[in-house]
Fold:
Amino acid sequence: MAQQTATASHSSSNQPRILDREPLVLNNRSYSWITNRICGIVENRQPKLWWILFIPSVILTGIMAFCFVYLISTGVGVWGQKQPVAWAWDITNFVFWIGIGHAGTLISAILFLTRQKWRTAVNRASEAMTLFAVMCAGLFPAFHVGRVWMVWFLAPVPNANAIWQNFKSPLLWDVFAVSTYFTVSVMFWFIGLVPDLATLRDRCKPGLRRTLYGIFALGWRGGNRQWNHYEMAYLLLAALSTPLVLSVHSVVSFDFATSVVPGWHTTIFPPYFVAGAIFGGFAMVLTLMIPARRIYGLYDLITEKHIDNMAKIILLTGTIVGYGYSMEFFMAYYSGNQYELQTFQLRGLYGPSVWYYYCMFGFNVFVPQLFWFKWCRKNLFVVLFVCMCVNAGMWYERYVIIVTTLERHFMPGSWRVFDATWVDNWTFIGTFGFFMMNFLLFLRFLPVIAVAEVKAVLPEANPHHDDHHEKGVHELEIEYGKVKVS
Structure:
């Protein structure tokens, strides 16, 4: 009796028992509520804020298209890169956007394989973010070649001149890695969409929308055999995507690590490029999902637990990135290579672009340390502030690695400070509009949260739910503050 009284007093505060897991869907929502809530975002009229964001995004996309047309008609010289800074904002932006796309595959594949159920509320949006980020990234190297209509020469196919690509070049490895990553990510994203597309198909009135949803639903009826094949395909694609998370940004880092340029020729690049990509990717996921959670009222599905877990991952990867920055400086000193040491001194101590390094270090290392405090992880304004700083800091990191290194190359007579042109600026800003336009269209026409996967994490989805009834008070028996004692 005393044990029941103690249990009742503990449960009366609406706190789960020590061994109970924190619910991933709040307020004991039912299957039908989840379906209606998520599908309603697609079926109902969009809020005014959606249009307020969409119209500027379309305008910025048009500006980006104009800048690329102007570049093709005039020449790559409209960008600011000149010797010795032959790689400037274009490659900086390419690496930045590739990094943004990493969190989607990590959440979808690695967390799926490790059975982290909290991923279900954010994996769909993060996968879509991955696709749109890779699309933005691919624009820059394609137009950087100058004659974009010749970009197909990067593919390993015979051509009229009998010229084969240099398979020893990491630039060609980039083409293979990024194209493979994008292809597998599209397949992974689409396979996860199939059950939800069938749900939208069945809820639509006859017409064009229902026909399109029906085509892409691939005849899904939710039978046992279909679910068996679906889960096997999803598992295989997750296993295939997992090494891509580690390989793609490692291959991107080889663009620099396999060179002989001081400041680039280092073996630490692959691991800390991967950590930085996950770091920036999770920051972008939170940057997108916290406003979406507020606009569409998804508080019961994207809970504080999801935000808290992602904030902890940002803290972990940010600390790894900070360790990488420190080890770069230490190894430059310890190596005894005067060129390497001088490069880092010019980069971080007294060079002309040293403030970029301070912004990088401050935003990526010091600001995320706020997440050591629980109240910071619970405060959405603080979380958004940290994520915005990380987004900016990761761009500064790529700028520091690429531009500031080339500004002070081997020959002092060729030193110069890079100065971005208006085409550089507006092309980069335009890619944000392109990214945001695609993401808003995704919110408008496709379910932002995986309906079937969220239902699977409810207690009712467990076939053994209510089978292990014990005397006392249980978390699921607490209703509206009333405690039921068995």
In short: Residues 1-13, 468-486 have pLDDT under 50 and may be disordered.
